[in-house]
Amino acid sequence: MVVAAVVLALKFVAYLLTGSVALYSDALESIINVAAALAALIALRVAARPADANHPYGHSKAEYFSAVAEGVLIVLAAVSIAREALPALQHPRVVEAPLPGLLVNLGATGLNALWAGVLLRAGRAARSVALLADGKHVLTDVVTSIGVLAGVLLASLTGLHWLDPALALLVAANILWSGWALMRESVGGLMDAGVDTATENRIRQAMSEHAEGALEMHDLRTRHAGRMTFVEFHLVVPGEMSVQEAHAICDRLEDAIQTELPGASVTIHVEPQEQAKHHGVLVV
């Protein structure tokens, strides 16, 4: 939040120095960064709460609400930018004192780039939806700012002042697409979307290699809930196998899957061989 506030202040200084609509749009997007950081902070605090009687699976899905809220804020920012840029496109304004303003904006962009890297690394390490969403948004802001800087400099050098509001409209379109992508990904998590194909293949491989003594595994289901991954499947064992032997196989499978996906919650339903479906994951 502190970094976002500093970047916001620098970008508004750049706008005041130049009067550029494109730089104004860039500064306006930074307001969203501050609000998004606050939403992420609240979501992370809620998601960190342990499971309780009313939420036996924990509170990790709270992170998705942060990402959805961030997407909505980005869309609102895009609309605000377009409202400012369209009149300016009809009546272009001369960009004043571009170099000082561009240098201030460049400094803010450099700070944003460093912070985007920090957020993305932390998000991947913690498997945090909220941090990754915030990092991707800040990275989008960096790319947008670089384009704005180049365009405003070009408008100043060529005298084609209509380039300034035109660039602001491009900024609006770019962050609108970014907001849509964030909301789509977050809604998928709220709708219990399964893991990606590569991760599912890793789970199947671990199951196949650590189920010695079982006959087959089928009906594999996965879902995400924030940083948590839930894995469920049926394990078919010989009918005469003891409960203790079947439990030992389940323990091996849980350990193998949790090695691939740290912190995963694994649920295994044990069935006798009469329940075999002759498809799914075979034991190697």
UniProtKB/TrEMBL annotation:
Q: Which Gene3D superfamilies does the UniProt record give?
A: Cation efflux protein transmembrane domain, Cation efflux protein, cytoplasmic domain
Q: Which domain of life is it from?
A: Bacteria
**Residue ranges of the TM segments:** 30-48, 64-82, 102-122, 142-160, 166-183
Would I find Membrane among this entry's keywords?
yes
Membrane topology designation: Multi-pass membrane protein
Q: Which residues form the Cation efflux protein cytoplasmic domain?
A: 197-272
Q: Mind listing the UniProt keywords for this protein, alphabetically?
A: Cell membrane, Membrane, Transmembrane, Transmembrane helix, Transport
Q: Does the keyword Transport apply?
A: yes
- Compartment(s) of residence: Cell membrane
GO molecular function annotations of the record? cadmium ion transmembrane transporter activity; ferrous iron transmembrane transporter activity; zinc efflux antiporter activity
**What InterPro entries does this protein's entry cite?**
Cation_efflux (IPR002524), Cation_efflux_CTD (IPR027470), Cation_efflux_CTD_sf (IPR036837), Cation_efflux_TM (IPR058533), Cation_efflux_TMD_sf (IPR027469), CDF_Transporter (IPR050291)
Q: Which residues form the Cation efflux protein transmembrane domain?
A: 2-191
* Cellular component terms (Gene Ontology): plasma membrane
Q: Which GO terms describe its biological process?
A: intracellular zinc ion homeostasis
Q: Which family does it belong to?
A: Belongs to the cation diffusion facilitator (CDF) transporter (TC 2.A.4) family.
Tell me what this protein is called: Cation diffusion facilitator family transporter
Its source organism is Deinococcus phoenicis
